[in-house]
């Protein structure tokens, strides 16, 4: 494994389901500990790590909307649920000896710092992992959009987009369409135009506007993050140009 990592500062996007393991809902302590070990291993290589967590394992805003709940109310509930995922992840990281801070876009001072961009960047510079909770703090935006926004704000080199049981981006859902083919590289615009389930369109557009590459990979393989940090091509690279050089079009 090369001593020099390929990236200095990364943002890891974790879905709530990534923390659920085999449970029907909630957080699986063993799964959370496994994620923490992967993050700690990267952190030990002097890579600055920020994390955005989702909450699909606890509450999905769109499910609430489908059942008649006001969309803004449902989204706020989802944002609060991300805090419930950030705290056990913080605890698991601390148990590995990794310094970590949780910052929430919704003020909740008893358990998390408020999100302040310059403070977050200072934490990263001091070698602390920063977990961004509560999405963007606004309804009608997903945690995917929060990941794209925070990555741009902190000047991350890349977003690592963790998927569950899927190796990367496919032309269709491989679980439903056996003819779906794997795409090792694709542009943001192609992902938007083809409606591929990489991120929502708002998040993809934000990444495209800021030349922010994404590496979509399978979180179930505990070696993936370390291999990506080493510069190995793992999963699917989504970038501004199809060659993956992150240049302008």
What does this structure look like?
It is a single chain. The protein is an alpha/beta fold. The chain has a single domain (9-239), classed as Carbamate kinase (3-Layer(aba) Sandwich). The protein is 35% helix and 18% strand. The chain has helices at 29-43, 61-66, 71-95, 117-125, 143-153, 188-193, 201-209, 224-229, and strands spanning 9-14, 48-53, 100-104, 113-114, 129-133, 158-163, 169-170, 182-183, 185-187, 214-218, 236-239. The strands form two sheets. A nine-stranded mixed beta sheet has the order 4-3-5-2-1-6-10-11-9, with helices on both faces. Helix 1 (29-43) links the parallel strand 1 and strand 2 (48-53). Helix 5 (143-153) runs parallel beside helix 7 (201-209). It is globular and about 50 Å long. Residues 244-249 have low confidence and may be disordered.
- In the CATH hierarchy, the third-tier topology is known as Carbamate kinase
Q: Would you report the number of β strands?
A: 11
Percent range for helical residues?
25-40%
What letter string, H or E per element, gives the SSE order?
Answer: EHEHHEEHEHEEEEHHEHE
Question: Which spans have pLDDT < 50 for at least 5 consecutive residues?
Answer: 244-249
Q: What share of residues are in beta strands? A: 15-25%
Mean of pLDDT: 91
Under the CATH scheme, the architecture is 3-Layer(aba) Sandwich
User: Helix count, per DSSP?
Assistant: 8
User: Which CATH class is shown?
Assistant: Alpha Beta
The tally of domains stands at 1
CATH superfamily heading: Acetylglutamate kinase-like
Radius of gyration from the CA trace? 17 Å
Numbering strands along the chain, what is their spatial order in the largest sheet?
4-3-5-2-1-6-10-11-9
Content-based structural category: alpha/beta
Q: What's the N-to-C terminus distance?
A: 33 Å
Largest sheet: 9 strands, mixed
Q: Name the overall outline.
A: globular
